[in-house]
């Protein structure tokens, strides 16, 4: 597979996503109760669960940063990131709708919703571009 260069707007989205993920990872560290309380997120969770969430959030953040800085595309990773971001946004919205989280918690999901949609948009255009190139090369 030949890696292509990402457009500038997608690189910016990935770097923004990396920053958002690092803030999210810090928020879910076990000792960050004040940040979770400020954002309307649950506070009383076991340290293991919080650490797992923080770790995976940070791992994805490092991946986004790497792709954003190098400019290389990785459609499977970006697709996994899109699904994760959209799922997080949907979970936050669902819990807000069910009144299990305060409305201010929806702010946490808004950035992920926008970035997840941006990732899907890039995946769609990259797929179409690859299809055109394949048809041209045939």
Structure, explained:
The protein has 138 residues and is an all-alpha fold. It has helices at 8-27, 33-39, 47-70, 75-97, 106-137. Helix 1 (8-27) runs antiparallel to helix 5. It is elongated, with a radius of gyration of 17 Å.
In short:
The protein is mainly α and 138 residues long.
What are the main properties of this structure?
single chain, 138 residues, mainly alpha
How is the topology of this model organized?
Elements: H1 8-27, H2 33-39, H3 47-70, H4 75-97, H5 106-137
Compute the number of helices.
5
**Low-pLDDT ranges:** none
Largest sheet, if any?
none
User: What's the β-strand tally?
Assistant: 0
Radius of gyration (CA) equals 17 Å
State mean pLDDT (0 to 100 scale): 91
Apparent shape? elongated
What level of helicity do the residues show?
over 70%
Query: Termini distance?
Result: 17 Å
